[in-house]
Design goal:
It is a single chain. It is globular, with a radius of gyration of 19 Å. The protein is built from seven helices and ten strands. It has two domains: 18-95 and 174-278, P-loop containing nucleotide triphosphate hydrolases (Rossmann fold, 3-Layer(aba) Sandwich); 107-170, no CATH class. The protein is of the alpha/beta class. Strands 6-7-8-3-9-10 form a six-stranded mixed β-sheet, sandwiched between helices. Strands 2-1-4-5 form a four-stranded antiparallel β-sheet, covered by helices on one side.
């Protein structure tokens, strides 16, 4: 895997706009109890983007992610995928992987069988899936743990299994809902770096929900700052820094600190629902 720096995961496309993968056009979501979780949320996400949704609790970050996944439908507005195809729920899509905050592994199944699950549900037998499952486990550094049960794994290893399960179908879009929030700082940093390496090599799109300004700046090429309920986009911030970011001194650099301050100002501005002038 090359560590040559690049501002964008697709160097050949760096000079041209990326193909649009997901578009939210004035999307709103009101739940059956009357709660307006999202209002007029508009956003475009390109192929090979790494976009973080950042905002206070209850601002609709996870709701937006579930809408994009097709797990629920908008109340108003349009959500399209793949150059205008209307998103409808429920959606079962091998082009899409979802990693939740909890690993949600089957405790009675081995690591291999947990990762095999999406392929099994799609009708792929165990033998036919063997090479693909082992490839996914190698991707997340668990090739030696295929026969182990979840109870024998650490929290970070369980999350790696969850990521492998989401990637086993080779999705173009990976949705991640605060996947590292419950992990210790060292494990979280390691998984951040490993996720970026996998993303750069396999060139899928990531939409990542987090409460951490620092994590969003470190991972993303774009940060979408959301206002409190009803949730909506109040700011979009580009992090124009080269990848990989674990080499050199980016994490302790003045550039990193300036990005963090800029995002913090935008996040503080959400309390008033007013975009911040950078």
């Amino acid at each position: 895997m090359s560590d040559a720096p690049l501002l964008h995961p697709d160097p050949q496309a760096a000079a041209a706009p990326l193909a649009t993968l997901v578009t939210l056009d004035r999307v709103s979501k009101r739940f059956a109890n009357g709660t307006l979780a999202l209002q007029d949320m508009s956003l475009t996400i390109g192929a090979h983007d790494f976009v973080s949704f950042l905002g206070p609790s209850g601002c609709g970050k996870s709701t937006a992610l579930r809408l994009i996944a097709g797990l629920t439908s908008p109340t108003d507005g349009r959500l399209t995928r793949d150059a205008g195809q209307l998103q409808t729920a429920p959606r079962t899509d091998r082009d899409l992987g979802f990693v939740f905050q909890e690993p949600t592994l089957m405790p009675w199944a081995t690591v291999f069988d947990n990762v095999w699950l999406p392929l099994r549900l799609a009708g792929t037998g165990r033998d036919a899936a063997d090479a693909t499952v082992r490839e996914a486990l190698t991707m997340v550094g668990l090739s030696r743990f295929s026969g182990v049960y979840p109870r024998e794994l650490s929290g970070g290893m369980k999350m790696r299994v969850s990521i492998a399960r989401a990637l086993v179908t080779h999705p173009r879009l990976l949705l991640m809902d605060e996947p590292f929030a419950a992990l210790d700082e060292m494990t979280r940093t390691k998984l951040n770096n490993d996720l970026l390496s996998i993303w750069r090599e396999h060139r899928f799109t990531v939409i990542f929900v987090t409460h951490s300004v620092y994590e969003s700046v470190y991972l993303s090429n774009r940060i979408v700052v959301m206002a409190p309920r009803p949730g909506r986009v109040i700011d979009e911030i580009a992090i124009d820094e080269p990848y990989p970011r674990h080499t050199g001194d980016f994490h302790v650099s003045s550039r990193y600190n300036e990005h963090v301050k800029r995002v913090q100002r935008a996040l503080h501005g959400t309390m008033d629902g007013i975009a911040v002038d950078h």
